[in-house]
Amino acid sequence: MKKVFAALALALAAFAFSQQEQGISANVELFSGTKQRAQFLGIENDTVKLGGYVKNQFTVVRIHKDKFKSILDDNGNDLLAPPAPVTSDSNVAVADSTAPDSAATDSIAEEPLFSSSTVLVAYENTTSDSTLSAQMTALTARLLLEGNEQVHVLGRSDIPECNDDICLQNTLHKKGAKTIYNGKITSALKPDSITLELSRITFEENLPEVHKAKLSLSKKTAFSDAIANNRMQNLILSAKNIPLPESAPKNSYIMVDTDPEGATLSRPEKDAICRTPCTFVVTDTGKVEVNAYWNVESQLWGAQSFVRPIPGDTAKISLRLKPISPEVHVITTPSETEVFPGSAEITKHSKSIGKSPTKFPLNEPGMANITLRHIGYKDTVVSFYVAPVNEIRLNVEMEKLTDYNEIAKQKEWQHDRRMSRVGHALMAGAIAPVIISAIFVYLGSQDYDDAKTIKDELRMPGSAKGENYQQKVKKNKDLVDDGDKKMIIGASLAGAGVLLFGVGLFLSF
To answer: Same domain for 232 and 147?
Structure first.
């Protein structure tokens, strides 16, 4: 049932509804194999009229009789070729005046095919403009030709035997047309407008498929409107059921001035645009973020605003700059994630900014990067825009690692980094022993100097070897012993310092 109704619907350009019209109950069979129960209402101009109820309404459809294999009534009589009436006097068959004219049908069938399988029927014009139909027909034919579609143009007067579109398309199809373009020009609801309607009928397996498209035009400038902005071309594409090409968006403009002037203007994830006052192009349809900033010595001044562009026009905005101190606030899941500046590969010598949650200043607006590392999670590089505002908040959820080798590399990095820190600590700790060693060496050398002075005094001629002499000898000996001790301590400390520095250097690198 659904297949029959689909075939009948595709074959018609219009429906006629009636609650009273009834006909002969018949079994209908098409050459396509479709079978259906319907009411036979007669044959007009080689067109069979059938009736039936669709959604509780009696619907009449018209199909060319060549599509039917048979139409049999309940007694088995073929209604496509009803028997001719016989006179009582002469028993000579007389053709029914309502039967189709076989000679006319034969003449149509014998006519040669068109020069092309695509036929364009001139627009039917119901308006008062008599030349518009010819103009639109010529324009449509030209556009079809430019689209590599060869067409045979026919006037409606070339098919005088048809008074409706169904007869028209069936007759043309019988003559060899595979694609038929059929247009109408009618008055629109507004008195100063007209409607251009173009139908495209294609035949596949003898069943027509219809696509329609409409276009509203100004009544006074119909032809100019049709050729403007590819409107007629789009009408043909719609009739072909081809999606229309997307039109390029209109450029919009934003003009920005600042107080003070000369500020750098930028947008998120873009380089600096210009210095104010200036105007730049946007294609966005939503709100546009605009940032202006100015570095004055070590102080950053800035302002931020949002502008909604005006399609094809210029939106103006004024910004007053104020002192700001941008800070980046990093929050991660999990917490205690180390934050490294930039996007370079992390090594054991990389210095982190801190562990999340953390804050750090960035006084240069524009694009920036940080790298996040947490053992057991994938390293994450975060690119963000530093706007001239006081706080930029970053919320990052880390992705867990499932590759054991990657986790092992991170743990190895953690161990190497810890050893590197120990090495740096030892190198730093080596400074103290060296300094203390130098002090002891210095003090020891002072003791040696004092002992040498006393020794020189004892060697002076005439020195009495009395009690005072013996005291000086003892003091000289004590100073030498003290100097030796201090030198030994200094040397030991120096050796320890050198050893610590060497071990630290080895662990660090």
So the answer is: yes
